[in-house]
Write a structure and sequence with these properties.
Elements (H helix, E strand, L loop, with lengths): L3 H17 L19 E5 L6 H12 L4 E5 L13 H11 L3 E5 L7 H10 L3 E6 L17 E5 L5 H8 L5 H10 L3 H6 L2 H20 L4 H12 L5 E2 L1 H5 L7 H13 L3 E4 L6 H6 L2 E5 L4 H5 L7 H14 L4 E6 L5 E8 L2 E8 L8 H14 L4 E6 L4 E5 L2 E7 H4 L3
Parallel strand pairs: 1-4, 1-5, 2-3, 3-4, 11-12, 12-14
Antiparallel strand pairs: 6-8, 7-8, 9-10, 10-11, 13-14
Length: 405
């Protein structure tokens, strides 16, 4: 049980600290962050990507003194339960608050019951959490039809450019590939921050949350994945080299890692759901800079790292992303769908050369032919060109140009 006096103390300290923070770089998603009195706004994203700062930017924009902010990660709130919301309720009534900002709310069981109650009372509610389940599983019952969801990622390339006060060039792209977009890391350039963050997500968002006992095996799996971004992986083939007992365990851990936003797993396109499940998935990390400092092989294939970067660019816009393998007819890196309809077909190649040109073009043309799509894109590090194959038009664009579309 949390005392009401303790809650009041925490709220006062946090609100003072929050208002003294640097407002930071206005995020690209800020104009979309509209709260509705009848809907909760749920902001989900990986730890340290800037969710609290985004809340501060929203608070500053609203300039409303009838706001209450509470971050549930305070050590004084460990063990906060559904019953403790009654004491929070008393503080809300005492302050006549009309808008609630509840940070890292995934730490409280059945939080959605309280949020639903506040919505029914006419309050506006904005919550954040470090778990993608906030967007589906946990909010899917009590908040059905009563929530708007948004995801927040580390800085995009465009945000990185604004933060660094520079323009889209080969040099700035190289810096972004190396350093990524975690705001605090870009301020300090202390690589230990990224290593600690990686470990914290494993321990706090996965081990503690799901009660995992075999911590070392989970750490080995995460280390393997961060060293192999852009590669195809299967749980069955990882079981023996990582000494993990069951394929089902690895698949469960994949799910945990994805819900924590640390990794994404992209399936091979197929009209058969079973084929999507059994075929290898391609793995990508949440941030282009993290593999550089967390992986045991930082000098890994720059082509894969560029591919990871383009995936993140697409993932900010689309939820449905696949790769295509025509089994001998060519491969294509990304098919981006919206509402079940292909929006973009993209191949990624660090540098087109006489040795790989035919292979890369063949792969994307096969994808365009399959989906009856007339235009495709090959993203490179710095090359620009146009390729016509029969009726198919392929734009070759440097990554820095694609990322500022």
């Amino acid at each position: 049980m949390i005392l009401q006096s303790t809650l009041e103390q925490v709220i006062k300290q946090q609100e003072t600290r929050l208002r003294n923070l640097d407002g930071g770089l206005p995020r690209e998603v800020l104009p979309e962050m509209k709260s509705l009195s009848s809907h909760a706004l749920i902001i989900s994203g990986i730890r340290r990507c800037g969710k609290s700062t985004l809340m501060l930017q929203m608070i500053n924009k609203m300039n409303d003194d009838k706001i209450l902010y509470l971050n549930f990660e305070s050590p004084l709130l460990y063990g906060f339960s559904l019953n403790d919301f009654s004491r929070l309720d008393a503080i809300i009534g005492k302050r006549k608050a009309e808008m609630l900002f509840l940070d890292e709310i995934q730490l409280v069981d059945k939080w959605e019951i309280f949020v639903r109650q506040k919505l029914d009372e006419g309050l506006k509610v904005i919550v954040t959490g470090s778990n993608a389940a906030l967007l589906s599983l946990e909010s899917g019952t009590k908040l059905t039809g009563r929530h708007i969801t948004r995801e927040l990622f580390p800085f995009s390339y465009q945000e990185f450019l604004r933060f660094k006060k520079t323009g889209p060039t080969v040099n700035s792209l190289n810096q972004y590939l190396l350093n990524g977009g975690f705001p605090e890391y870009l301020k300090t350039e202390d690589e230990e921050q990224l290593i600690t963050l990686f470990d914290d997500i494993i321990m706090r968002d996965i081990v503690a949350r799901y009660g995992i006992k075999d911590i070392r095996s989970l750490q080995r799996l995460a280390a393997f994945l961060i060293a192999n971004v852009g590669n195809r992986i299967t749980a069955t083939k990882l079981k023996q080299p990582l000494s993990i007992g069951a394929t089902s365990t690895i698949l469960t851990w994949f799910s945990h890692l994805e819900l924590s936003y640390l990794f994404f797993f992209v399936p091979m396109f197929s009209h058969s759901e079973k084929a999507q499940l059994i075929n290898p998935k391609k793995v990508y990390a949440i941030d282009p800079g993290m593999p550089e400092y967390v992986s045991q092989k930082p000098e890994q294939d720059r082509g894969r790292r560029l591919e990871n970067l383009i995936f993140l660019h697409l993932r900010r816009k689309y939820k449905e992303i696949y790769y295509l393998d025509h089994k001998g007819k060519g491969e294509c890196d990304f098919l981006a769908f919206k509402g079940g309809v292909v929006q973009e077909i993209i191949q990624v190649c660090y540098e087109l050369t006489p040795d790989n040109l035919d292979r890369e073009v063949k792969g994307i043309v096969e994808a365009m032919r399959y989906f009856n799509f007339s235009k495709g894109t090959i993203v490179t590090f710095s090359q620009k060109d146009k390729i016509i194959v029969n009726t198919y038009e392929i734009e070759v664009v440097p990554a820095w140009e694609k990322l500022v579309e």
